[in-house]
Amino acid sequence: MSTAVIAGIGSWLPPRQVSNDELTSYLDTTDEWIRSRTGIRSRHWIDPGTSTTDLAVRAGRRALAAAGDTGVDALVVATTTPDRPCPATAPEVAWRLGLGHIAAFDVSAVCTGFLYGLATAAGLIAGGMAHRVLLIGADAFSTIVDPKDRTTAVIFADGAGAMVLRAGDPDEPGAVRRCELGSDGELSDLIEIPAGGSRQRSSGELASPADHYFRMRGRDVYRYAVTRTVEAATAALDTAGWLPSDVDRFIPHQANVRITEAVSDRLAIPAERTLSNIDQVGNTAAASIPLLLADAAAHGRLRPGHRVLLAAFGGGLTWGATTLLWPDVISRTDD
Ligand code: UT7
Prior knowledge:
Helices cover 32% and strands 23% of the residues.
């Protein structure tokens, strides 16, 4: 049985940068509140005419180039902001990347999407259904948050990160270990878009325009985010046979700098080993982990041989974690 091994990584951020000051010009918020409560100083938003597919294609192209442009036989796109409710984003991304008539589908696990996608891609390889898989985490949350809702508009942002996985051996650097995944659907209404799905339509009532926006009960989510991320990360460390002190680089989903500090504190991972880019990119949901991986690898904060812990938490509720040894691969964050 083959193991999925990382062969290359890439990312793309839309050029438009939105500072906290820009948001304070029309929202009842302050730069101080946003920085102190979330760690965010700036984020990237797409312009009208751009969509999640565009983000995914650009990041995917960079990851494919980083992996030597040798093609893939499956594409998995993790996203909560597909271009349309139907069909999935991935087939169009595959077509635009010129990947041929390969298997292509979306995975929906909100901010845990990249780790659910990683488990799915690794499963395709382990099951012999694919030899090389392109996995993309792409989200354009600026298109689903209510621009007038200060509790979400200041946090969420746009971007895409992509990774090529190839069939290899479990002992190789870059081999993806078991992903520890979980969910709790009893809490599904803590993070939701109420309208647009079958529940609203089957009720026979028209949704209000506000119900089409993304909502998050942040304070409630916060509590579960720390506990569940610590549990998943602990399970992943146990699977790897690592102590927290063995972790060279902790790459958590970038939801809130206070959450990632609390998680690394509880896990007893030294703060300097916990990487962050939330100050520049905000919360980019499924793109968060691959954006941070690509950025850190391109700029030497993540180096071959580093023992890496990945962990995420998000709507669903969902959570996940895994470990790997960072391989000697190319990371492309520009063309
Ligand atoms: O991505 C994966 C899933 N998401 C998460 O894991 C996010 C988890 N939650 C969080 O990160 C935090 O709960 C938030 C950043 C969303 C909010 O931070 P908080 O410290 O939990 O603030 P809060 O919701 O308890 O609100 C505190 C106060 C409230 O005012 P009162 O009731 O104390 O008078 C809010 O109305 O801050 C107010 N507030 C704001 N004030 C200025 C909320 N948003 C803003 C804002 N600017 N943008």
